[in-house]
Amino acid sequence: MTPPPTTLLTAPEKSQVKAKSSSCGCSSSSNTADGLDEKMRARIEKHPCYSEEAHHHYARMHVAVAPACNIQCNYCNRKYDCANESRPGVVSELLTPEEAAHKVLVIAGKIPQMTVLGIAGPGDPLANPEKTFRTFELIAEQAPDIKLCLSTNGLMLPEYVDRIKQLNVDHVTITINMVDPEIGTKIYPWVHYKRKRYKGLEAAKILHERQMEGLQALKEADILCKVNSVMIPGINDEHLVEVNRVIREKGAFLHNIMPLISAKEHGTYFGLTGQRGPNPKELKTIQDKCSGNMKMMRHCRQCRADAVGLLGEDRSQEFTKDKFINMAPEYNLETRQEVHAGIEKFKTELQKAKATVTAKNKVVDSPKILVAVATKGGGIVNQHFGHAKEFMVYEVDANEAKFVGHRKIDHYCQSGYGEESTLDNIIQTISDCKAVFVSKIGNCPETELQKAGIQAVEAYDVIEKVARKFYDQYLKQQLA
């Protein structure tokens, strides 16, 4: 991964847009928006999970040092592993704290945009406190500019908030799927607490009480808390509005409502019993219901517990133990600071470009449309249609282009040729979008998209600028 360009469009990049493939082959809405003081902005500006803007530019990595877990979730099975899969709890190999620290130093040199080290499993970090905190100690000593963060189910959180604060871990995520223990009985078969296993309503009550106690303790310690909630249709979907209200009152900074990942091959209880996950429209509806109450995270990729790279990409297979263990650490604070300075300069240019397309006077009655964007990051339309593994989805009206989610797809381009069945699935995935923005697209997929009522727009520019231009043209056509 190379640093971003210092200008938004270079001459070579502009020329790329002009080339047309003839084959079938292949105002910011971030967390730094108004309402945050400068101190808070500084705390999140380089954290790709806590800042939507940061996730375009900065990378994160997770180290898998915490194998044990103290609760069972009906959507979790940590034994299954596929290198191409991205879901929480999945890892290819476990690391010792020393191996993890070595890996961090290697990657911090090779990916200087990496700013955050998280421990998220494959079990629960606080069910493995010695390994978790030893890892944090080693990294804090050797790479002081890297932010430390952990994700937990919250069962043991109240015991360790002081230790978390002492280690300067400034970001903690708690997975809270319910605030009603009756609903919790449908999600958690058991909880292991103080050397005893609890089941049913008693288990759910213990977990709920501990989560609320931990959330309150984080607030009192001035540690930023993100709450993850897994949306499970028919079980907690409508209840998540109440979850949102409660966590807001108790001081959570950010709410991330994620779709249930449920497939039979994962071997989870929900997968084996046929419990479905929400579709994109259902997910967006619940997120929208909660968005007026507190900041919503919509750019989560439900990362593996050993993920490496930008959100939306996973380079973990480049740094398996047999590879990184023999690599010399290349961590260099001065080099990293130079790269980060370049990123911040680029972000400033990006903000200026976005400002030119922001409506000065709010339009009250403005129809909203969805558009899909192929991007490799940087807040720019800069990816070939056939190379995309996901699309970022923006909701556009006369006032703004607002990021509302992402949708994963299979590669259309396979060995230089397009797969017809894959294209059908892609079109279905973005069927509610009026356009798809790409750096290039072949004639065949462009034609099929057009038949489905989706316009392919070739561009290499700031996403918001492309969205504004398309929206204006779309309105003219609608009024013609």
Automatic annotation (TrEMBL):
User: Where are the stretches annotated Disordered?
Assistant: 1-33
Task: State the UniProt keywords alphabetically.
Answer: 4Fe-4S, Iron, Iron-sulfur, Lyase, Metal-binding, Nitrogen fixation, S-adenosyl-L-methionine
Please note every region of biased composition (Low complexity): 21-30
List the cofactors: [4Fe-4S] cluster
Q: Does the keyword S-adenosyl-L-methionine apply?
A: yes
Pathway(s) served: Cofactor biosynthesis; Fe-Mo cofactor biosynthesis
Its function? Answer: Involved in the biosynthesis of the iron-molybdenum cofactor (FeMo-co or M-cluster) found in the dinitrogenase enzyme of the nitrogenase complex in nitrogen-fixing microorganisms. NifB catalyzes the crucial step of radical SAM-dependent carbide insertion that occurs concomitant with the insertion of a 9th sulfur and the rearrangement/coupling of two [4Fe-4S] clusters into a [8Fe-9S-C] cluster, the precursor to the M-cluster.
What is this protein's name? FeMo cofactor biosynthesis protein NifB
Report the source organism.
[Phormidium ambiguum] IAM M-71
